[in-house]
Amino acid sequence: MTVALPHADHTDREPTVPPTADCVADSAGGLTFDVREPGGHRPEVPSHLLLRLRSGDDEVRLPLTPVAEGRLRAVLPSSVGLPEGRWDSFVEHGDRTPRRLMPGVNDLRSLVDRAPSGARGHVAVRIPYATKHGNLTVRAWHRAPHAEAGELTVCGHELTVRGRVYGIALGPAAHAEARSRREPSLVHHGELDTRGPEFVWTIDYRALAEQDGPWDLWLRPAGSTGPSVRLARLLDDVAEKKQIFSYPASRLGRPEGSAALLEAGPYYTGDNDLAIRVQAVD
Amino acid sequence: MHISFLIHNAYGIGGTIRTTYNLANTLAEQHDVEIVSVHRHRDAPVFTPSARVRVRHLVDLRKGTAGYEGDSAAHRRPARHFPSAEGRFDQYSELTDHRLADHLASTEADVVIGTRPGLNVHLARQTRRGPLRIGQEHLTLDSHSRALRAQLRAVYPRLDALTTTTEADAAAYRGRMRLPGVRIQAVPNPVPEPGVAPADGSGKWVVAAGRLAPVKRYDLLVRAFDQVRRERPDWRLRIYGGGAQKDRLRTLIDELGLYNHVFLMGPAHPIDPEWAKGSVAAVTSSLESFGMTIVEAMRCGLPVVSTNCPHGPGEIIDNGVDGRLVPVGDVRAISRGLLELINDDPLRERMSHAALADSRRFDPSRIAERYESLFHDLTAAGRSGTRLGRMRGSLHRARGTLLGGAYAAHDAGRTALNRRLPR
């Protein structure tokens, strides 16, 4: 049953039904939108699905073409670049004001355990989701290269991160860096165990105890002279990782020179990047 | 036929509301259907009624609108007709008493259907003579207090029929409530075909969905999954839903070190695409008055491993054929049940096909047919002389011999009845 459509109280007035889109994701990163808009389509003017980057002026227009049962379909192939961010979706007929789309049924099963080849040198991710206002927005990432975080294991005061890189090789000088967000000059270097594109990084939280707050995690696949690659978790169907991929914090005790008891633990940022937060325990 | 549902609040979200829309939308393909909502707190219902279903309210509780009645004196005075032992008593008032009485005294429906005990009481007492009076029990007799059962027993004999969602609950009503002349019949909840293709069984995911409430016993599921993980670390578990148990479950997951295997996903609407990502569904409740999520999962092609708790699971799952029933409260049995399906791909595939086929009996079209035949039987019963039916029967006999077929007979009875009864 379709949810959240305002409907029709036929006993008083007839509110306009907002357009909705069902989204189907393919494992390559492409999205198909099937738009339903009762009475909305006018064949004499061109219709588009409009994606508008929330933080900026970027817009992408995809032609909407009629398919069965009065539906209009637009396709966003993985080959169309979509810069990283939140893309609000609209349906637009000719020069009429675009109408915000609401989510219908999102079939994202092909994204669940996504394992792209990385052969194109980048990873493109688009995850449609319902905003807190109930509208349809597409969360996009485009990372070239990319370091995907997989299983995290917390053991005592150590965190082990398993992952793999895409679009870059892990060279002999490959290493990892934890960078304090509050004190950018503080960088903790870590060793990587690598096997092909896969890596394991064990971080001793005590090395981060000198500065509280978040530490962002990066890989340097080609060593200090090569690119920095942010560790992130992107390759599944979950648009907002923070609440769902949750991990226990570890007590660090009272480090030397510290007045407070500290704890540390991993978390995903609003952009699904992996970070470690060091904070005082109340 | 004109069918009128009476519901606490058609504008909210919840199992009874969803079920009522599913049934109403389907009945509306053949009949004139309305949903009368006692309360209205927002402009639009969350679920979409079919264009043929009329939805209206009796009391307007939309704050900040001109029609708001929440502050009226009559709404502040307690209800006298709504049963005091009913869980929603506090939300009923002298105002709802009046509106319900007016509605039921003047309804032009041929069938009125109540969707909770307090409304069934109004319906039994206040419906004008003529329409069939059908009360629905969406929970179970066991879930009602002794005081409420006593209040219901005094009034329910005035119903034509009482429907339960399971045979087990129907048996409880027959055995313990003594409702002479009232047809007590189990009719399961309808569950529509999902809006996505069924699961293909390739995903190594177990899926559960429901409120994170103590009765769902997700703590047992998490512990069982700890055992699954030891044998099959490649499988993982998603639990959809929100609720008060979330923090406890989070702590349990962290204590067991299951944070790479068990995920609390939060609420999902619609849920069907989430079932379709899994290959096995799990239900570990200590009580399921029906077991809607079991049917939903089966309709998406997932075999369900469920505790054999009262009342629904055992009536939905054909044990070993389209799913697996395990003892209530037994962590080892739950993990064995899950591993049985996880470790045997051909068995899982067979059960998946069986689940799809067997769950079609819950399709709204089938459930609506069961209601239609109930309406027909109740009308026809008049011929053989039950209480309300006696009058209908005598009227019916005058023309019944000229007509064949259930609908024709039924409609004739109704027509004669409507002609006789003043409006």
Helix fraction bin of chain B: 40-55%
List low-pLDDT spans of chain B.
Answer: 388-423
The major sheet of chain B is characterized as: 7 strands, parallel
How many separate domains make up the residues of chain A? 2
Helix-strand makeup class of chain B: alpha/beta
Largest sheet of chain A: 7 strands, mixed, barrel
Number of strands of chain B: 13
**CATH level 3 topology of the largest domain in chain B:** Rossmann fold
Strand order of the largest sheet of chain A: 12-13-16-15-14-17-18
GO molecular function (chain B): glycosyltransferase activity
Organism (chain B): Streptomyces triticagri
Protein name (chain B): D-inositol 3-phosphate glycosyltransferase
Pfam family, one (chain B): Glyco_transf_4
Would you write up a description of this structure?
The complex is a heterodimer of chains A (282) and B (423). Mean pLDDT of chain A is 89; it is low at 1-15. Chain A has strands at 20-25, 31-36, 47-53, 59-63, 65-66, 72-76, 85-93, 99-100, 102-107, 123-130, 136-143, 146-155, 158-166, 175-180, 187-195, 198-204, 213-220, 229-232, 250-253, 262-268, 274-280. By secondary structure, chain A is mainly beta. Chain A has a seven-stranded mixed barrel. Chain A folds into two domains: 20-143, Immunoglobulins (Immunoglobulin-like, Sandwich); 146-280, Sandwich (Immunoglobulin-like), CATH 2.60.40. By secondary structure, chain B is α/β, with parallel strands linked by helices. The two termini of chain B are 16 Å apart. The chains are: A mainly beta (282), B alpha/beta (423). At the A-B interface, strand 9 and strand 12 of A face helix 1, strand 3 and strand 10 of B.
Summarize it.
Chain A has strands at residues 20-25, 31-36, 47-53, 59-63, 65-66, 72-76, 85-93, 99-100, 102-107, 123-130, 136-143, 146-155, 158-166, 175-180, 187-195, 198-204, 213-220, 229-232, 250-253, 262-268, 274-280.
